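INTERNAL AUDIT FORM
Audit reference: QA-55
Scope: verify that the stored structure record matches its stored sequence.
Auditor: D.O.
Record contents follow.
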Amino acid sequence: MAAKYGRVLLKLSGEALMGGASYGIDPSVAKAVARQIRRIVELEVQVAVVVGGGNIWRGLAASSKGMDRSTADYMGMVATVLNALALQDALEKASVHTRVMTAIQMHEVAEPYIRRRAIRHMEKGRVVILAAGTGNPYFTTDTAAALRALELDADVLLMGKNGVDGVYSDDPNLNPRAERYARVSHQEALQRNLRVMDASALALCRDNDLAIIVFDMNDEGAIQRAVLGEPIGTLVAATDALVE
């Protein structure tokens, strides 16, 4: 099997690591994610992962209850580091060489994020897990994923969702008639507020012609199928790419 994409960035939501729990990390789910990532590493695909922290802490939610927004967001960045270390452990146990790099310095547990070093790690076949978002408050991990994908020259941004298998016209949990799109342009997703990711991240992808594949992480083998170019989830891309 030949991969369609040589270098990918996987955005993994914190909720995708919870499994059936209401909080925290389910080790069995982390192992399942690691198995999926190992499959594409075996296809000689270079992989970077940006992890969210919503399973542990949501800065925006805390801010809405009176906490200082910057403080709440920094706590969210630390939560992503916890997830990154858990995923690293699962990957290493699956015999996948891994490096955690953080946007805020934590020398005892991770390397600082340096673009050229991250690229070099990937060229050597190591999975790079990028934690702590952009290192700045007021920016989501969606924005961090878009930014890092562009910095690292990724061919595609893979958005692994928790129990959502693509982009819908409405919330499928509330509206049973919601339509799932196979393909949609960045601009249409922005105009119709389709919630692919936050608006600033989506605009960044649109302005730099970065394709996004949105799929359900709970679907075993989903990452491999996406990397092989098989139809899965929803493709968000420039209008001309959708016509091809």
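Auditor finding: record pair retrieved intact. The two ends are 22 Å apart (CA to CA).
Action required: none
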